[in-house]
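I would like you to sit down with the record closing this message with an eye to the fold:
=====
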Amino acid sequence: MNTKPILRRTSRSLPIALLKARETVMGPIRIMLNETGISEQKWRVIRVLDEAGPMEQTSLAHSACLLLPSLTRMLRSMEEEELISRATDPADGRKSIVRVTDKGRQILRNHAGASEALSSDLEARFGKERLESLLDLLEALNNTPLMPR
């Protein structure tokens, strides 16, 4: 008797489906960002800071979907490029607060039209209701931690 667990077909594997979907969405965004040489990770950091305002690094890492050590290294180069600024948190000197600079905001403005066109194209092809449903489902999934057995 074979007790080997049966795996889902890769075509119906959630991790693989999410990776394929990510590439479908991110491919055109990477092409857009290549024009200015900014990485998708830096783009996320700038967008999060512009939307949420100044943030402590740990919160920023979480919001931008980055590991804290990766973010810390990236912030050094972003500061050198004058895309962000950092200052010591007055309430806790061990922490630093990160802010987007005018130069960082300019990158957002420079890409706003192309970014909106990509979003509009995706919405037109996939359907507004389906896209909203997908976002709702993904948000629910992100709020449902899965524990390995």
